């Protein structure tokens, strides 16, 4: 199937070549940005673009700390793992991130995890890692594809393993009634277990009672509400929009809206994205939230790629341009990585953003930032152009 990015760019090129700016000047099409000079817009040179990463590399000290932790675990130790989780305190998002890292280590070798479970010193953390590992292996055994495309025997084995994970997570929850992590595991398993909506809402209520803005929990819950599982496009989008409006300062949770748009685009192409001012105005709001998130948060660079893409599709080129400036040389992330040539796709998208933003804001460095909503309410064929 043609990657979603190509659908998006193709649709965008058609729209751009048919429309004029508010001042009456023709909007450049793809052929007219061939001589694009990134430096004129505060962007890194095209020759420096790196498709191998979605964002800057991890700080050296942090990388060495994680490598030492992994080495300790793989050598059979578990105390370093327990200390690593305990250091997160009641920052539940950070704790979840650390449990995720330990799950990836356990996927390589899990003898240390068994020893940790047997020691019984932090039953909740150890059992949560085990439950997450069972969920991961269940998905690996299931394979890819939509639910209707999975062979019956694989689907049955998948659900059986998820039931095991659910039981492990229940035990973890009994060990520490404060920690939302075990409940997030249950939410993650729910869609594959075919839990009815009433039961799912009960599980979700347990998550938000402990951590109302848990980022990982919201992502898992949004998957349940997808049309491909147990919801619909409208239910999924509504869930994501509520997350944007309810997110606290400093949280990357508003990025959930970008992930919901990605789900819609994958299912329907750019024409399936929501239109209307209400949805367009969410993108600047998401941008402000990402700007307020600590720089060390590794989710932010990946979310900026999505934000740049959807800002461009929704005719907010200055907003897209500002994201491209913040992204820098890293282009190894969705949606560009879905294209045959990620570097070219990324470079073309930022060229379009800069070229479209220039008539509205001027093309000098520093003049293309902000929310970039000027002249964005274009129409095509008598209707509002579908955008984010």
UniProtKB/TrEMBL annotation:
Residues 363-388 are annotated as: Disordered. Residues 363-381 have a biased composition (Gly residues). This is DUF4034 domain-containing protein.
